[in-house]
Specification:
By secondary structure, the protein is an all-alpha fold. It is built from 13 helices and no strands.
């Protein structure tokens, strides 16, 4: 396929190209770790899965450059750095509060070191730098692609519910290599895997709602994603704290789905009445 026909094909199928590149970029970082027998552990800086987490961002940039050129890239980066979104920022401390309640409920002492033991990040970085690194790779690296590119395009002709569920179908298997290289994923039982998948679907719904409500702020969903991971995927947050945070997200997703269904139930009949002959 010559360059121009290839570019034309990409422009006709931007989502397919994005998803394919996101898998390619991420898995090309993770599969060598698997082949070499490496294990990504909390608080240990090598091997690390972090570069692979930026795969969706790289896929979004490449696809946008081909499909929309420089104007599209400028619009994409404006969405990534959009921060004037009002009260929507309050959703981030809500997640942190849920994790804090879970930690207090256990009665166990919580240390900053325990909270900063993040997979693939050396604990020597300390809490502040660890949060910054995770925000860049795990937050922006993922969300600029999943929400900033894919969700934005899918919402043009799909409902929020359909968009979030379809995206989750691509997001879940994207994690597959991590179940073989991350110590925190290797021990998942079938029940834990089902719970993790339900949590990810719920997260997809909540993140799509946040993204739409904030007029496409990647910074918001990246911060929210980072806060959720720290309150559910660190040693200090294991057990009750992770359960409290995950339950909150699942309940929020259910409320959003009910609200979206209620809105569509009112809007669709009204549209039909307007279009019916008098």
């Amino acid at each position: 396929m010559t360059p121009e026909p290839a570019r034309s094909w990409v422009r006709r199928h931007p989502l397919a190209v994005f998803f394919g590149l996101a898998y390619l970029f991420s898995w090309s970082c993770w599969i060598p770790i698997l082949v070499s027998g490496g294990t990504v552990r909390p608080g240990v800086g090598w091997p690390t899965d972090l570069p692979g987490l930026a795969g969706p961002l790289l896929a979004a940039v490449v696809t946008t450059a081909v499909v929309d050129g420089r104007p599209g890239l400028a619009a994409f980066w404006r969405g990534v750095f959009r921060w004037r979104i009002g009260w929507w920022w309050l959703t981030v401390p809500v997640v942190l509060a849920a994790g804090a309640i879970g930690m207090l409920a256990t009665g166990a002492p919580v240390s900053a070191a325990g909270l900063s033991e993040y997979p693939g990040v050396p604990v020597a970085l300390g809490p502040v730098l660890t949060v910054a690194v995770v925000f860049v790779f795990n937050g922006v690296g993922e969300e600029a692609g999943w929400r900033g590119f894919a969700t934005r395009r899918m919402l043009r002709d799909r409902s929020l519910t359909e968009t979030a569920l379809l995206l989750a179908l691509a997001w879940i298997p994207w994690h597959l290599p991590l179940f073989f290289i991350m110590s925190t994923f290797r021990g998942f039982s079938p029940g834990a895997l089902a719970g993790w998948s339900l949590g990810l679907v719920s997260g997809s719904i909540v993140l799509a709602w946040l993204f739409r409500g904030s007029r496409g702020s990647v910074l918001l969903v990246a911060a929210w994603h980072t806060a959720y991971n720290f309150t559910s995927a660190t040693p200090a947050a294991s057990g009750v704290p992770a359960a409290v945070t995950s339950t909150l997200v699942m309940v929020a997703a259910a409320v959003i789905l009910i609200r979206e269904w209620s809105i569509r139930r009112r809007v669709v009949p009204a549209a039909l009445r307007r279009g019916s002959p008098s």
